């Protein structure tokens, strides 16, 4: 038995609820059930053709060898130029590391920056991996709750109350997974004013920046004076429908990026060489690709409007209008503790199971994101599936 003793830091690791839900959906489908999934966090579009062509070209040119840790210099230069244009601040290739998805970028940032006893402020509802990654780095997650009364956006007062001398990092994620909330410039400014008086670092996870239905307020455009304390995280997964290619990046002060690359040099070294050459096309300015990215965002917006309209017709469900990403995060407390067609649910987790069992629709319960009373639906699926899924949702309640 002792042979299988796992490291102590694993004792608190929670496996991913979304992955668990996807596994259940696969199992039910294998049994012949027609399950509609609203649980997947990825675009249903295919990777744009010019990006795929670049990968084929790279293969044919035998770009199949190791690359420098943190990515080929051409890609880091292209990403630095993109960041410079986005943020309105000058970034060089040395301030960028390309990672195996934004997820690895975040993991490496926590590893490079956190010690035991440090606190990381992660506003709830949160993307689950922030919590687990902070814990794996020895830090303690602090999770002030920003519910639907503030549009799922942390207020300056809440941030102020959560800050302590031990706060090492504050994580901002706009547009947000799971809520789709997008912070306004004024809201970011209010947070910046609080942070100026602290020594905390800021991680701004901008992975959904191209999927914003309102003018996107970027953290460093609003608070450029905090650039020397900010780590930008982004990637190709959502903007370019490239989830499987595993391309993300971190950018920030050079000493932090060098530390991140040093860890990378002993772990993954770099993401796949072919993916890097594909991403080089994604990050090279192109009117055609810009249009493709905008078209995908427009399609998501149409689906958001559809899902909101259909959810509004379900008694007991209220939903804040999300301004970005491809998630809605309805409040389902009105459906709890009262008789539904097939029984009573006391928690959103039970309701989530109820929906899977009786309506064959897969969502993710708010509990997974630190927000009981809500469920998350990803609308990165066809309009026909959204319509049928919402019909089933409504019908199974009675
Ligand atoms: C908020 C957020 N950040 C980061 C990621 C990581 O994306 P990837 O590792 O595919 O770049 C995701 C993926 O779901 C996400 O939702």
Summarize this, please?
Helix content is 41%, strand content 11%.
What does this structure look like?
The model has no long low-confidence stretch (mean pLDDT 96). This protein has two domains: 2-46 and 289-395, Aspartate Aminotransferase, domain 1 (Alpha-Beta Complex); 51-285, Type I PLP-dependent aspartate aminotransferase-like (Major domain) (Aspartate Aminotransferase, domain 2), CATH 3.40.640. It is of the alpha/beta class. It contains 14 helices and twelve strands. The N and C termini lie far apart (50 Å). The longest helix has 26 residues, at 287-312. Bound molecules: pyridoxal-5'-phosphate. The site of pyridoxal-5'-phosphate (PLP) has 13 residues, from helix 4.
């Amino acid at each position: 038995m002792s042979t299988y003793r796992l490291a102590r830091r694993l004792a608190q690791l929670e496996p991913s609820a979304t992955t668990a839900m996807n596994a259940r959906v696969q199992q039910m489908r294998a049994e012949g059930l027609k399950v509609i999934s609203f649980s997947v966090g990825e675009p249903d579009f295919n990777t744009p053709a010019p990006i795929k062509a670049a990968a084929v070209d790279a293969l044919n040119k035998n770009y199949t060898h190791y690359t420098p840790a943190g990515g080929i210099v051409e890609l880091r230069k292209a990403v630095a130029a993109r960041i410079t244009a986005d943020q309105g601040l000058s970034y060089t290739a040395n301030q960028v590391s390309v990672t195996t998805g934004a997820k690895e970028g975040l993991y490496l940032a926590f590893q490079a920056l956190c010690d035991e006893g440090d606190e990381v402020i992660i506003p709830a509802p949160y993307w689950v991996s922030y919590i687990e990654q902070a814990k794996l780095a020895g830090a303690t997650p602090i999770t002030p709750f920003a519910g639907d009364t503030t549009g799922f956006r942390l207020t300056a007062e809440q941030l102020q109350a959560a800050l302590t001398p031990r706060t090492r990092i504050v994580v901002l994620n706009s547009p947000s997974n799971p809520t789709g909330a997008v912070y306004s410039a004024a809201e970011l400014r209010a947070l910046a004013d609080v942070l100026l008086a602290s020594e905390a670092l800021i991680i701004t996870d901008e992975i959904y920046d191209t999927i914003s239905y309102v003018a996107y307020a970027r953290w460093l455009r609003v608070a450029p004076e905090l650039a020397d304390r900010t780590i930008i995280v982004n990637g190709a997964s959502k903007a370019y429908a490239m989830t499987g290619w595993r391309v993300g990046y971190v950018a920030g002060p050079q000493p932090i990026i060098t530390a991140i690359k040093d860890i990378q040099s002993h772990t993954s070294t770099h993401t796949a060489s072919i993916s890097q050459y594909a991403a080089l096309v994604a990050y090279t300015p192109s009117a055609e690709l810009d249009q493709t990215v905008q078209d995908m965002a427009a399609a998501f917006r149409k689906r958001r409007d559809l899902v909101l309209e259909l959810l509004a017709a379900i008694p007991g469900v209220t939903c804040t209008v999300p301004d970005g990403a491809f998630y809605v995060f309805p409040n389902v407390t009105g459906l709890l503790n009262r008789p539904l067609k097939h029984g009573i649910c006391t928690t959103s987790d039970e309701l989530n199971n109820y929906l899977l069992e009786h309506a064959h629709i897969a969502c993710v319960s708010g509990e997974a994101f630190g927000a009981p009373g809500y469920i998350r639906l990803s609308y990165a699926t066809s309009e026909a599936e959204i319509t049928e899924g919402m019909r089933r949702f409504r019908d199974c309640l009675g």
